[in-house]
Write a structure and sequence with these properties.
This protein is of the alpha+beta class. It is about 25% helix and about 20% strand. The chain has nine helices and 18 strands.
Length: about 375
Amino acid sequence: MSGSSFGRLFRVSTFGESHCAGVGAIVDGVPPGMQLSEEDIQPQLSRRRPGQSKVNTPRDEKDQVQILSGVEQGRTLGTPIGLFVPNQDQRPGDYGEMSQIPRPSHADFTYQMKYGIRASSGGGRSSARETIGRVAAGAIAEKWLNEQFGIELVAWVSSCGPILCPDMDEDLLTREKVDSNIIRCPDAATAEEMIDLVGQLREEGDSIGGCLDCVIRNTPAGWGEPAFDKLEALLAHAMLSLPAVKAFEIGSGFHAAVMRGSEHNDPFVQKEGRLGTVTNYSGGIQGGISNGEDIRFRIAIKAPATISRAQKTATFSGEETELAAKGRHDPFVVNRAVPIVESMAALVLMDAALMQRARPLAEETSLF
């Protein structure tokens, strides 16, 4: 059994550790004939890469992607696409003293217990560098979804610790607006507060978490596979598979627990030639199937576990010790997670789209 593959008809298998020769993915199920080059994939990888701002790790990786297979003369062949990104600024020596000390709240202990061995340099597969393969594959999925359906995905930082981004007009949110500052909060004044907080915590050798919101526009109605593979369940699976993600909510989320049915229901109305809803507490999904409204979800990301502030802990043999992590680490990762979340959502939607296309009678029997 392997936990390194995701999807059914559009299947992605990632490989690599944080300090090996490189990381990447094998992407199977890409329809043939689509124009594709490294330039289509690189923008999202560049948004994800380390070393891009003062609020993130200074590890300097360009994360330049190479397409190894599945594309000829600029078009996809329908065969598996191999993607590779070399590691160029790895420093496994920074982790020498951690070989006998499981870092608090990291995956060192659990990987050792599961496999009897682990990559002690940088966390191995539990490192966020594993997400490079996801982002590269997601960029391919997103290109196809946009060309076929006009689907747009925009994620942004909605909180940093106790600092909350005010409600935004989501119809006006673009990636350009989100990327207008280094912390990827679309409200400029709030972004400055967040940047100051992260800078303070970096000086203290500490870290902080936050929330990330995502809106997906133009998803057709009818996608999702009840009862066990509901669209929101697959999105939750995708998001909770990401490093440091601790919670997922869709639409009204936990607030739904305090709302009455008369408040929470989304009444139907005719709009723009289709049946839509007045409100969107459902978050664009009802009964596990997309309803044509914007898909809206939020995730919570914990503070990075590896910090340079000294912590009392224990070695693998149970001896008390103190650990102050060396190396280059993020005091805040939510802004770097923005393209990762967009990419994982694209993988879910791509798979859902291909499964719906496998039902040729669906459109013929539709009321519309």
